[in-house]
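Why should sequence recovery work at all? Because a backbone constrains its sequence more than one might expect. Tight turns favour small or flexible residues, buried strands favour hydrophobic ones, and helices have their own preferences. The token representation captures these environments compactly. In the example below, the structure is given first.
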């Protein structure tokens, strides 16, 4: 498991935003099958925790719409 602490704020934000955009695209496809699964959710949660720890503002990921 990679330690997120050494990463720059903008790098963390970019990683998190990338997952958020992929989830949005997944939902737009309209299929009940998702391209992103538990691994992406786990990574997004780790990133979110680090963003929270740093008190950075970010748009939350909406996994289900």
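From this structural description, the recovered sequence reads:
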């Amino acid at each position: 498991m990679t330690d997120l602490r050494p990463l720059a704020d903008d790098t963390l934000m970019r990683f998190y935003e990338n997952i958020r955009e992929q989830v949005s695209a997944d939902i737009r496809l309209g299929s009940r099958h998702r391209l992103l699964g538990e691994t992406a959710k786990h990574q997004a949660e780790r990133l979110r925790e680090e963003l929270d720890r740093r008190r950075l503002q970010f748009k939350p990921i909406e996994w289900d719409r």
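A few observations help interpret the result. DSSP finds two helices and no strands in the chain.
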